[in-house]
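Feature request, filed as a ticket because there's no other form

It would be nice if the structure record came with a short human-readable summary line next to the tokens. Right now we just get the raw output. Example of a typical job, pasted below so the devs can see what we mean:
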Amino acid sequence: MPSGRKRIAVNPPVFFVSGALLLLFLGFGVLDTKDAARVFPAVLSAVSTHFGWLYVLSVGFFIGFCLWLLLSRYSRIRLGDDDERPEFSTLSWFSMLFSAGMGIGLVFYGVAEPMMHFSAPPTGEGATLAAAQQALPITYFHWGLHAWAIYVLMGLGIAYFAYRKKLPLAIRSCFYPLLGDRIHGVLGHIIDIIAVFGTLFGLATSLGLGAMQISAGMKHLFHVPHGTNTQLILIAVITAVATLSLVSGVKRGIRRLSELNMLLAGLLTLFVFVVGPTLFIINTFVDNLGRYLAEILTRSLRIAPLNEGEAGWMKNWTLFYWGWWIAWAPFVGMFVARVSRGRTIREFILGVLLVPTVVTFAWFSVFGGTALHFELFGGGGIAQAVSKDLATAVYVMLERLPWGGVTALLAASVVAVFFVTSSDSASFVVDMLTSGGHPNPPIWQRVFWAIAEGACAAVLLYAGGKQALNALQAAVVSIGLPFCVVLVFIAVSLVVALRRDHPTPPPE
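Raw output as currently delivered:
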């Protein structure tokens, strides 16, 4: 039967063990919410306390590795055959990788995170001019080069071994130079199962928290009850639309929704930039970019062992983010690899590391900078709204601008579409992982995992509310520890393969 007509493409150990783990953790989270809320955060705290140094050194190494590869003779190598050209246009490619990478978080935290750092900085007093000067550089640090370098390394490793070495589109393939055919055995299964776990529950957490933000926006705009029933309906709708997109495939559903994402987000950003404090936004962007670049080395290696207060702040913020990006890397890396066939290594690194970083900084400068301007010079009130409910932060800020109702509705739409694209792309990745790296798994499997993710978020939200979702989020971030080690070995494996496959410089 032709591959396009396959009815099933399952790697049984990964598929069934992942399904069993899904049920096991759902049962623990639902039947024993209090213990889950105690155990998972305790595990995360222990990981941050004892292995924070590993996160700090590893993530710094990932940036250095990406920059070395970008400037090396290997950067001309194409992820595919030597004469192959990219499968997607640059705009479509960028839209898809950005939507999958962190589009959801940018909307949720675009106003909230700078305001939280303004109110409670790592050092010094909050709600001061000094705190305002730190707020955006710290936010840049958490969402900038470090985060995207993690995605670059994972995605590049998968893409190189899949498209140059013709191995399955799976994380296990990255270890072929080190393990040989053993990647098809138990070790390979374990790697893919952990990746499925992180993707499934990471998305379930995001779906639940995202439903809360959309629900808060609907209450803010239309006085719709902001409760569990509304949030469950939103999860059902998002899951249904994501399933339709997933069934349509990458080239139609996922690509088109991602392009719609970028259009809506771009319109919202342009509006806030033009009608907001434009000159202040430009000045703060330039100033904060300079502070970020000047402090990047010291921040990258900072642990603050002699300052208990700052060390606690780092555990709650920086180390949490490093764990979250690493845990999220299998999903984003797999998806970015899937849509990057035909790109050179140089194009890949520039497109996934530098361009999204600049766009991310611009986003935070527009939304976070506008919020800071209102807080400092416009009567305040936004920091208080953030402390009361993070989900309403962006809506409270938009209210201060002309046409606040229209832009708030647009913001809610952007959140919803970002969640749809995250859901469909994550379901697609889980399906590829559980099918042994099949690039276009059968439709029924795509539908199964899309529904499973939505059901996971709905069940946890219904049974334990935000407490259960936060506990699950702590469990997901803890997965960052083993995958931190996995990423280090991916870098080693990639260097071994590049030197073995290309002993002389590749042709221009």
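Something like this underneath would help us a lot:
Residues 119 and 126 are 5 Å apart (CA to CA).
The two ends are 40 Å apart (CA to CA).
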